[in-house]
């Protein structure tokens, strides 16, 4: 079997008494679009930070194409791109200037970086805006420029943290189509987190449902539907699957005292 692009075994992160990620075991195949679904505070961002080597796990292991992000963070960063929820750029510089600046920070020479920048801007649909200052960009344009920044590295896997939050419907459609194309056209593994269930359902090959730091379900959506809902057809939504697990994870209500 091919080596997983992303693999975790019992990956755990504790902050004193709080468990942010609880024994996460997961495999993501190369060129797959994997959506990690869960509410805010479920542990999604913490998981991504550990996979990138930006946060050290309390216990357990993580691997990116066989590399340990904690022990080989520089090698992992060469393979992986990261788009945080809030992308930061210099507003007084153009989109192309921002990408060139980041490319130089990553050790790329200008003669190597410039054609990569041209290609990345073309992929994300911003080639015609390359000379516009980023301060004039919309939220959706900034997110797409963030994808272009990731692509300049020519990564094998990209991690996207809530990539469509705050986007209008048109920008959301563009972003989802772009994420899908990264996998289908460029062969890049996409690991993205979201709490927007309909968007996850539309573009993911497989999903994971994370609640309270624990992965409570993972697999293709039709398989999860059979396991969670007992249905074997397409008349279901990811929201129904999610809510079934969400209700199961809720603590039982305390009994009402007699006489009340």
Description:
- The protein has 260 residues and is an alpha/beta fold.
- Helices cover 38% and strands 23% of the residues.
- The protein is built from nine helices and nine strands.
- It has helices spanning 44-51, 73-79, 95-105, 110-123, 139-152, 169-184, 197-203, 221-229, 238-249, and strands at 6-15, 18-28, 33-37, 59-64, 80-83, 157-161, 189-194, 206-211, 214-219.
- The strands form two sheets. It has a six-stranded mixed β-sheet with strand order 5-6-7-3-8-9, sandwiched between helices. A three-stranded antiparallel β-sheet has the order 2-1-4, with helices on one face.
- The longest helix is centred in the C-terminal third of the chain and has 16 residues, at 169-184.
- The protein is globular and about 65 Å long.
- The model has no long low-confidence stretch (mean pLDDT 90).
Show the helix and strand layout.
Layout: E1 6-15, E2 18-28, E3 33-37, H1 44-51, E4 59-64, H2 73-79, E5 80-83, H3 95-105, H4 110-123, H5 139-152, E6 157-161, H6 169-184, E7 189-194, H7 197-203, E8 206-211, E9 214-219, H8 221-229, H9 238-249
Parallel strand pairs: 3-7, 3-8, 5-6, 6-7
Antiparallel strand pairs: 1-2, 1-4, 8-9
Helix pairs in contact: 3-4, 3-5, 4-5, 5-6, 8-9
């Amino acid at each position: 079997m091919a080596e997983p692009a992303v693999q975790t075994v019992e990956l755990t992160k504790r902050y004193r008494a709080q468990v942010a990620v609880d024994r996460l075991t997961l495999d993501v195949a190369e060129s797959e679009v994997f959506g990690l679904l869960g509410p805010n505070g479920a542990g999604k961002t913490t998981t991504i930070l550990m996979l990138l080597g930006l946060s050290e796990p309390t216990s357990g292991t993580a691997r990116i194409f066989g590399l340990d992000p904690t022990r080989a963070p520089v090698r992992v960063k060469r393979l992986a791109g990261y788009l945080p929820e809030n992308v930061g750029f210099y507003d007084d510089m153009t989109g192309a200037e921002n990408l060139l600046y980041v490319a130089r920070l990553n050790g790329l020479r200008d003669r190597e970086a410039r054609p990569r920048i041209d290609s990345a801007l073309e992929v994300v649909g911003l080639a015609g805006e390359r000379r516009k200052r980023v301060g004039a960009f919309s939220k959706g344009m900034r997110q797409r420029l963030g994808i272009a920044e990731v692509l300049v590295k020519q990564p094998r896997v990209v991690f996207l943290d809530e990539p469509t939050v705050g986007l209008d419907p048109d920008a959301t459609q563009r972003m989802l189509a772009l994420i899908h194309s990264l996998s289908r056209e460029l062969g890049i593994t996409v690991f993205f987190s979201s709490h927007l269930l309909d968007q996850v359902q539309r573009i993911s090959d497989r999903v994971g449902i994370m609640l309270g730091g624990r992965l409570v379900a993972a697999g293709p959506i039709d398989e999860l539907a059979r396991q969670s809902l007992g249905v074997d057809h397409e008349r279901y939504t990811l929201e129904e699957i999610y809510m079934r697990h969400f209700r199961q994870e809720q603590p039982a209500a305390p009994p009402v005292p007699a006489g009340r």
